[in-house]
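The protein record quoted in full:

***
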Amino acid sequence: MTRLGSQVRAMAAATHPAPAAAVTLFAALLAVEVATSPGGALVVTAAVGAGQLSIGWSNDWLDAARDRQVGRSDKPTVSGRVSPATLRTAAFVALAVSTVLGFGVGVVAGLANLGVLAGGWTYNLWFKRTVLSWLPYAVAFGLLPAFVVAGGGGDQVVAGWAVLAGALLGVGAHVANVLPDLDDDAATSIRGLPHRLGRRTSSAIAPLVLAAGSLVTYLGPAGTPSATRSVLTVLALALAVTGGVLGVVRPRSRAPFLLSMAVAGLCVVQIVAAGDLVAV
């Protein structure tokens, strides 16, 4: 493999590709529903994608010393495949691109997109070490549907249920996402809310918060829920209860984390399937 190819792969790995791709796909599916033109949906999706790149790269840049301390050889900065300085530059470039694209579909949309970006960046910079570690996730995920709707064209305003469901999805995903890294974080003095609650409590809470997001998505939109939405909700609640119970009785198991991720995925599907993202 050429040096350039190796660095491209390292840069891709430093984006936190799975969550970055999931959030971008989520935004794309919502944008297709609400955008008044294909071009608008494309710009909104590109803005979210660039924003996710900036958040992922800034995370690995800012955490480079911590990752070296705990021997995270899976991190490109630790293995030496890419330097923190390179990630820092890339993060700021991607941040600028996302900001420009966000304002390209409207002032309100641009401000909402800035809120999403601020959530990710402030978490990386400071909030992850505090009891308010959940707050940037609530803000970013709550504002994501607001950005998509505002950027869709016209004078559309996001429905309140979508903001609340997004915020709950973000908080639940944060708590669940931290579970595999609790020990490494403790070794480097990271003390976010899940760390303070402890593994058992966090393992139980994560799927339950996500289940609350599922219920909001089921009850929020106007009209009678479809059979599909009902089935998705029942399945999400069943998985959440199972994950919560396992979190209490087997906190060291990966099952609570995996089940929480499954509930988060179902919640995303529910939001997309619900439609009705625009306030009447």
In short: The chain has two domains: 1-155, 159-280. DSSP finds 14 helices and no strands in the chain. The chain has a mean pLDDT of 92. The radius of gyration is 19 Å.
